[in-house]
DNA sequence: CTGAAAGCGCTAACAA
DNA sequence: TTGTTAGCGCTTTCAG
């Protein structure tokens, strides 16, 4: 394995000169630069990033902590993040953690182990105490979720997300606009300020705004999973108790897909018997039958904007900010317009 | 930021002693070990991996190079790989590359930059020349594909995959067993030894074995993409030319889903008018309607076995091997049994 | 513009 | 069992 020394020797210069051309410093003569470049090219030399990172104290690496089971929704965002990071000359180190794991802890460890310049948290909770958050001492941004319950000072964290509550409210309103009155909800956990909870609140708000009663028996919860199979399982079990609703709001596309299978297996037609709406806008939901009506998150922008915000903080041109991105309703064929009758 | 020196000072020992307890060496007195551990705990010290990796020359990192657009099929495998690596005490560094990019080159760069111990290639081509492959000097394994065209010496590479040709043949046979005679195929590229090509060969073989003619006008190709949207687009365009088939074999689940939408939009019922079968067994295809009949790849095993093989080579207990894993047919509802006539 | 030399934080001989 | 010390490959003063 070639080192900078070998290159220096081969080019007949000192290691510092090689280092200078490696780092595109201006203070090198054209002649030296050319010679060094030639040798590097010739020998197929690639600098040892580990050593560079060590001496620079900080690396050019950004950590990405992804929480929860594999949600197809994240895939696009992850790609957007990686591309954006790559374009800016940073490396991405990804770490997946379990639904119940502590992402701040994981971030703190990773930050030190890998000497990260910054961290992007994808899909987490947001109810941290400031002290907990303080364990992460590099810039970070929450992607696709935010601290909407307000336990944190807005100057203390960054986030790029949609407004989950509004999104849910909008989605449910689509159902109501189509004449639905008995609207069930398929959610995950309800007991903290998770995305599930926020979207559930949006559901409640939409009902309230239209003077529709909130019927607890129509709120189905997977407990803490967004997984398609759990959505299916819970929906199937719930249908044995009640199917007294004409529409279903699922807090995530993936969950909607699971629920739709359960509905069909229960003999219900979509949207004939039950209309379905969800939030996220994952690719595949545009290809299922009936095409899922959903409120799309701007996946690409969530990723690129997160990177932009993070790099802004890292490179000292930019401060903490909470960015809220707009959603767009994608009309599918999973909502049936009900005939008006009171 | 605390360093090993600080810990040594605080614990009243030398850095070597700290290093020894960090690396769980046996030659440390219980007394020292206890004291050092206490200080580490107390100070929340986390060793600098960069420095460790530098001095160890080689890191504890394994590279994962994922080629091609985000295929949901990969997600599960990636997770399986990460979990297995984590369990064995290795870190994963992932890098996505474009469909047309050179994964061996990417691997070679990454290997040097990150001082990788090994590399797993996910979803690549397999028609490299031995000289190209030689650029990667750490152990590596091809995951989910193999060098079936045989340009490589079996002692020169490792792979964990299914037999793509057999899988395709089996899938198409399911169609034939159900009485189908006019079977279209939706494929990607055909001009190299890609997975698409192998599966296409399986399709051809199944037809040949049953004396069915290969009708080129029923072979639809996306060119080089496995993306759902391209499958949809190509299928929709093809249907304008011909719909003279009773069954469709798609080389990937995701492509099947795209095709199914096109078929429906063309007014065809699945499986009433057209039966569909595919290969991969991604999660969501179990939830679409009709449930997709498909030949499942053992995703979890593909990942864990790849890691096992790789670590075997890295840790010196194990040599190159080509592992072929079995597929299992998952009967959905997308195949219609044709009445026997002729 | 260039080179010598001092580390970055850690591991691994080698001595003690 | 412990400490001393020489680097790992690179960047970065600081002189020249």
What does this entry show, briefly?
The structure is a homodimer of 342-residue chains. With 342 residues, the first copy, chain A, is an alpha/beta fold. Helices cover 41% and strands 16% of the residues of chain A.
Descriptive overview:
2 copies of one chain form a homodimer. With 342 residues, chain A is α/β, with parallel strands linked by helices. The first copy, chain A, has 2 domains: 21-162 and 299-326, Response regulator (Rossmann fold, 3-Layer(aba) Sandwich), CATH 3.40.50.2300; 164-296, 3-Layer(aba) Sandwich (Rossmann fold), CATH 3.40.50. Helix content of chain A is 41%, strand content 16%. Chain A has 12 helices and 12 strands. The first copy, chain A, has a 6-stranded parallel sheet with strand order 2-1-3-4-5-11, with helices on both faces. In chain A, strands 7-6-8-9-10-12 form a 6-stranded mixed sheet, sandwiched between helices. In chain A, helix 5 (72-87) links the parallel strand 1 and strand 2. In chain A, helix 1 crosses helix 2 (15-22), helix 5 (72-87) packs across helix 12 and helix 8 (164-177) crosses helix 9 (195-209). The first copy, chain A, is elongated and about 85 Å long. The N and C termini of chain A lie far apart (79 Å). The mean pLDDT of chain A is 90. Chain A binds chain B through residues 1, 46-51, 53-54, 59, 70, 72, 75-76, 79, 82, 91-94, 96, 108-109, 112-115, 228-229, 232, 254, 257-258, 260-261, 264, 283-284, 286-289, 291, and chain B through 1, 46-51, 53-54, 59, 70, 72, 75-76, 79, 82, 91-94, 96, 108-109, 112-115, 228-229, 232, 254, 257-258, 260-261, 264, 283-284, 286-289, 291. The first copy, chain A, binds a DNA duplex (16 and 16 nucleotides) through residues 3-5, 13-20, 22-23, 27-29, 32, 47-57.
């Amino acid at each position: 394995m070639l080192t900078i020394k070998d290159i220096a020797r081969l080019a007949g210069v000192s290691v510092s000169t090689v280092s200078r051309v490696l780092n595109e410093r201006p203070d090198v003569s054209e002649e030296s630069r050319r010679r060094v470049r030639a040798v590097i090219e010739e020998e197929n030399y690639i600098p040892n990033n580990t050593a560079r990172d060590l001496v620079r104290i900080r690396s050019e690496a950004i950590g990405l902590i992804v929480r929860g089971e594999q949600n197809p929704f994240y895939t696009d965002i992850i790609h957007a993040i990686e591309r954006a990071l790559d374009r800016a000359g940073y490396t991405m180190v990804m770490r997946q953690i379990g639904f119940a794991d502590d992402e701040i802890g994981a971030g703190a460890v990773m930050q030190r182990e890998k000497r990260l310049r910054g961290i992007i948290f994808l899909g987490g909770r947001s109810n941290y105490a400031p002290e907990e958050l303080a364990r992460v001492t590099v810039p970070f941004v929450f992607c696709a979720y935010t601290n909407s319950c307000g336990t944190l000072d807005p100057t203390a964290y960054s986030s790029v997300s949609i407004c989950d509550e509004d999104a849910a409210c909008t989605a449910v309103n689509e159902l109501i606009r189509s004449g639905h009155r008995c609207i069930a909800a398929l959610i995950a956990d309800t007991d903290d300020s998770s995305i599930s909870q926020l979207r559930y609140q949006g559901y409640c708000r939409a009902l309230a705004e239209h003077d529709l009663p909130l019927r607890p028996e129509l709120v189905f919860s997977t407990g803490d999973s967004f997984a398609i199979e759990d959505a299916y399982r819970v929906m199937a079990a719930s249908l044995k108790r009640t199917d007294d609703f004409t529409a279903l709001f699922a807090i995530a596309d993936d969950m909607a897909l699971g629920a739709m299978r359960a509905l069909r297996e229960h003999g219900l037609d979509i949207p004939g018997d039950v209309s379905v709406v969800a939030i996220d806008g994952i690719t595949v939901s545009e290809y299922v039958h009936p095409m899922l009506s959903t409120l799309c998150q701007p996946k690409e922008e969530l990723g690129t904007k997160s990177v932009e915000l993070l790099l802004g903080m890292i490179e000292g041109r930019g401060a903490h900010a909470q960015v809220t991105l707009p959603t767009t309703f994608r009309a599918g064929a999973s909502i049936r317009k009900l005939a008006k009758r009171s």
